[in-house]
Amino acid sequence: xxxxxxxxxxxxxxxxxxxxxxxxxxxxxxxxxxxxxxxxxxxxxxxxxxxxxxxxxxxxxxxxxxxxxxxxxxxxxxxxxxxxxxxxxxxxxxxxxxxxxxxxxxxxxxxxxxxxxxxxxxxxxxxxxxxxxxxxxxxxxxxxxxxxxxxxxxxxxxxxxxxxxxxxxxxxxxxxxxxxxxxxxxxxxxxxxxxxxxxxxxxxxxxxxxxxxxxxxxxxxxxxxxxxxxxxxxxxxxxxxxxxxxxxxxxxxxxxxxxxxxxxxxxxxxxxxxxxxxxxxxxxxxxxxxxxxxxxxxxxxxxxxxxxxxx
Length: 311
Description:
Elements: E1 9-10, H1 13-17, E2 35-39, H2 47-58, E3 63-69, H3 70-79, E4 84-88, H4 100-108, E5 113-116, H5 123-133, E6 141-144, H6 160-171, E7 177-179, H7 183-190, H8 194-199, H9 201-212, E8 215-218, E9 222-226, E10 232-236, H10 247-260, H11 265-287, H12 301-310
Helix pairs in contact: 2-10, 4-5, 5-6, 10-11
């Protein structure tokens, strides 16, 4: 992989203080804080939807709606009473049926940020669903995570319907979109060897951003955020305790919550990566480096945001 790169900007206190998050007016209501639509979860991984939706609320979003498979919708509604929950038809493999786009599509354009992917199963159905939903999103900021990122796969062995539709999808990224792969997912999406990604993650993120015309947040001990324009951001921090099931779902939810408040996706990603890492550092001080839970991360976010904004 080759290509010219800009000088990466370090995501640190100085950058974040100079790049403050949008804040609602003191008299502002929940509408001013933005709406998030989280499309996530499955019978086997229901917690991903809960983690992402909770994180979006902790990041300051005013309203969150969760759209999920019918089998877990009712218990999820009780688990997160602050959200609206919409039932979607389910495939035999446990994914969201492509026809669900007809159910959620008319609602989607009302949201400021749309997160698709945490905990979704059935990659083929997920790909078809995302493709069907895309025309309904309007100018909503789109965050694709986990299985939903499969729409940009270019592997020859990809499902034919997904592969043939892929070029239309790539060309249609006219509104803001962000993908959040870890190195294994990046290798899968871009048909690369994982070792190639690990050897030069900055270049992998930059090439993907340009190829797919989307922002890329390539997660790891060092997280790289790349824009199609060649802009780069670099974050180093957190600890190994963040490498735990559900951690990525929380990060995706924080990004969506910040984006709903009006932050451009690159700003939402930079702030979310920093807040996520600092939440891990704070929990490590309380519980030790290993053993804290992903569901504990979101509760640390509001105080961390306030602390950065107050400096």
